[in-house]
Amino acid sequence: MATLRSEVDVAVIGAGAAGIGAARRLGREGRVSVLVLEARDRVGGRVHTIEPAGFPLDRGAEWLHSADRNPLSGIAKSLGFSVHRRPPEWTNRLRRSGETLEAEADWVATRETQGQARRRAASESDDRSLASVLVPGGRWNRLLDATSTWGNGAELDRVSVKDYVRYEDSGVNWRLRAGYGRLFERISKGQPVALQAPVSRIDYTGRLVRIETTRGIVAANRVIITVPTSILAAEVIRFDPPLPDKAEAAAGLPLGVDDKLFISLSDSFPGIEPDIYLVGSTNSRETMSYQVRPLQRPAIYCFFGGRFAAALEREGEGAMFAFAADELARLLGNDIRRRIAPLASSAWQQDAWARGSYSYALPGHADDRARLTAPVDDRLFFAGEACSPNFFSTAHGAFMTGVAAAEAALASLGRLATEAEVTA
Ligand SMILES: Cc1cc2nc3c(=O)[nH]c(=O)nc-3n(C[C@H](O)[C@H](O)[C@H](O)COP(=O)(O)OP(=O)(O)OC[C@H]3O[C@@H](n4cnc5c(N)ncnc54)[C@H](O)[C@@H]3O)c2cc1C
């Protein structure tokens, strides 16, 4: 592999959604030299599409959340991607999972009441956890905890209520038939990305910032750092002078754990409608959410999070499959066991360059997102999903922070085109 020896205007660290967003914005300016340094042998980071059985599977991000406000919706369309707009049936999955319509209505009402209690709690001066607003002994408390592990990657007692309510969700969710990962592969085509180039040190004592990678040293005027908070908190990248404030802010925004297990479903299994959702158990924290025959495919996608996911990751795909098979047999009958087989799975906490799935804020740490994002010395800029004030934990949130960091870097270089130049 070629040794890197270069001097650029802007170096971007990480080729995930944020890094690709930053490089795209810098590339559009046309007057700056750019190099993206990526540790893995592929782009996309936590957005990764695989195809082990003739149809695409998203190991990480799948949904264009807030699709009507998501810049990637328009980009996907303009690049010719087929966008699937049917709304997911997330609200009526209880009735399909053995609960009565009355029970489901009670669950929906409880979620609404919890939403109001969370907003009230967030307006108080002291931050606290989502668990603190639960009704003691509430009928749905365990399911609320399970859904927190799916949405936040962590149980309710770990999550800041102030941060939680800052997340914006327009309620519109779309999917790309080809897979979300393919979109980032496409956007990054032609971008100057150096793969298998993990960064270990950033020295900004000199006129140029010196970036040490296993493939050599790169000098840059400006640097955009988009690595996950798990990497910053563990100080996998050393800064000189050190940046203890960044490591602390990153530690306040740990990555929760969410994983997927993909199961093949034999075509001969009758009577299952496509694109329905099931929940394995409505009274356990340790349960999975199931997407059955998504996009009419002969498959079931299983989704699970929190401490439960971390433990299953350690046990491996066999344990994930055994758990899912038991829950599916309870829901759909024992015959299902003969019709399913494991296809693929993720283990994001064990992934060396992610070390988790997406960020949440610990109680008392909601303002760490702004602390993490603040530039250093007008030369080091920070981006990534954890830096998003309102779309954190998502691919579009990450992408938008990359664009914002690119614009800040360009402005500091005096290269951000003015409105007059753009329209001239
Ligand atoms: C199971 C799962 C389901 C999800 N579902 C959705 C969804 O449906 N919709 C949605 O919008 N979001 C979803 N997400 C979240 C979304 O994938 C992430 O928020 C987003 O992709 C993060 O992008 P990023 O650029 O901030 O970070 P990353 O994608 O992690 O990119 C950072 C890059 O930096 C690289 N890197 C790390 N350390 C170094 C180093 N030292 N040197 C060089 N490079 C380094 C990494 O390899 C990586 O490529 C999901 C995530 C998971 C795991």
Percent strand equals 15-25%
The kinds of small molecule bound in this structure are: flavin-adenine dinucleotide
Number of H/I helices: 14
Instruction: Please give the share of residues in helix.
Output: 25-40%
> Which overall shape is indicated by the principal axes computed on the Cα atoms?
globular
What does this structure look like?
- This protein has 424 residues and is of the alpha/beta class.
- The protein is 33% helix and 20% strand.
- The protein contains 14 helices and 20 strands.
- The strands form 5 sheets. Strands 1, 2, 8, 9, 10, 11, 12 and 20 form an 8-stranded mixed sheet that branches.
- Flavin-adenine dinucleotide is lined by residues 13-19, 37-40, 45-47, 60-63, 65, 198-199, 226-228, 231, 236-237, 258-260, 346, 348, 353-354, 357-358, 384-385, 393-396, 398.
Outline of this structure?
The chain has 424 residues and is α/β, with parallel strands linked by helices.
Itemize the secondary structure elements and their pairings:
Elements: E1 4-13, H1 17-29, E2 34-37, E3 49-50, E4 57-58, E5 63-64, H2 71-78, E6 83-84, H3 93-96, H4 101-122, H5 141-151, H6 161-166, E7 174-176, H7 180-188, E8 193-194, E9 199-203, E10 209-213, E11 216-225, H8 229-233, E12 238-240, H9 244-251, E13 255-256, E14 258-265, E15 276-279, E16 289-292, E17 299-305, H10 306-315, H11 317-332, E18 340-345, E19 358-359, H12 368-373, E20 380-382, H13 395-412, H14 419-423
Parallel strand pairs: 1-2, 1-11, 2-8, 9-12, 11-20
Antiparallel strand pairs: 3-4, 5-7, 6-7, 9-10, 10-11, 13-19, 14-17, 14-18, 15-16, 16-17
Helix pairs in contact: 1-13
Bound molecules: flavin-adenine dinucleotide (FAD).
